[in-house]
Amino acid sequence: ESKALEAYRKVEPVTSAGVRVEVAANLGSLAEIPSALEAGAMGVGLFRTEFLFMERKTLPSEDEQADVYTRLAEAFAPYPVVIRTLDIGGDKPISGVDFEHEDNPFLGWRGVRMCLERPDIFKPQLRALLRASVIGNVKVLVPMIADGSEVQEVRNLFAECQDELQQEGVAFGTFELGVMIETPAAVFLAAELARQVDFFSIGTNDLTQYVMAADRLNPKVASLNRTEHPAVLNAIASACNAATAAGIWIGVCGEAAARQDLIGFFIKNGVTELSMSPTSIPRAKRAITEL
Ligand code: PEP
Ligand code: MG
């Protein structure tokens, strides 16, 4: 079995109906690049930037971030790398940010909500992403979106950063901007959001917990925390329809992206990119070619 699977690493999978699907890697650090390339990752569909901010005493500088994002993009060129802006909250505190105690951290001050209130943290990341875009095929993904105004605020901050870089004579590039579809609000607003962004990426881990109101970390409600539940599948289909109608691409980057029993459903609904842990890639490629 493992020999037969190996052969799929280098494949760029196409379904029997002729749909090309990008199978990309979810990464949490640069150290994982070699294994992702080895497994046949067609780029990165989710680069979790949290690692840059955690387990250290000071915030990472703009230069340090620009270096990390550039090295990531270079490693996967010409494939794209989707870099997610900081997604941290009261359950995962970092030094340099005062997280007050919250009774419901998953419903609290996390992801883009925190970033928009802390431009001193967010803007160096945005500037680093703009700088890395000179060299690589970078796409920027914003987590925890629940309202169109958040997208607009992110765009405004990017414009501010571009002005500053321009004035400083620092080179920067352009990139696609996308949002995670991981809150029920984002699903219900998908038609509007699709007009504001270049792509969607469905975060099935959070989308499942929020649609089912079942904590993704609590084993007592695991029987409800199922992405294959019809309520979650309807939500996914609805976001996919909105993306298709608006002519933007849509990917899946939650754990469910690697599920053999769901890949057909995603692709039937218009998903063209699946991002997963590198070890799952060959199997997913095979499943796609067998659809
Ligand atoms: C998700 O919510 O599905 C996701 C991919 O993001 P994270 O697991 O980092 O919350
Ligand atoms: Mg998430």
TrEMBL record:
GO molecular function, one term: kinase activity
GO cellular component: cytoplasm
Residue numbers binding Mg(2+): 182, 206
Location of this chain's protein in the cell: Cytoplasm
Keyword annotations of the record: Cytoplasm, Kinase, Magnesium, Metal-binding, Phosphotransferase system, Pyruvate, Sugar transport, Transferase, Transport
Coiled-coil residues: none
Transmembrane stretches, start-end: none
Binding site residues for phosphoenolpyruvate: 48, 84, 205-206, 216
GO biological process: phosphoenolpyruvate-dependent sugar phosphotransferase system
Active-site annotation: 253 (proton donor)
Family that this chain belongs to: Belongs to the PEP-utilizing enzyme family.
The protein's role, per its UniProt record: General (non sugar-specific) component of the phosphoenolpyruvate-dependent sugar phosphotransferase system (sugar PTS). This major carbohydrate active-transport system catalyzes the phosphorylation of incoming sugar substrates concomitantly with their translocation across the cell membrane. Enzyme I transfers the phosphoryl group from phosphoenolpyruvate (PEP) to the phosphoryl carrier protein (HPr).
Name of the protein in its database record: Phosphoenolpyruvate-protein phosphotransferase
Organism: Paracoccus alkanivorans
Taxonomic path: Bacteria, Pseudomonadati, Pseudomonadota, Alphaproteobacteria, Rhodobacterales
Gene designation per UniProt: ptsP
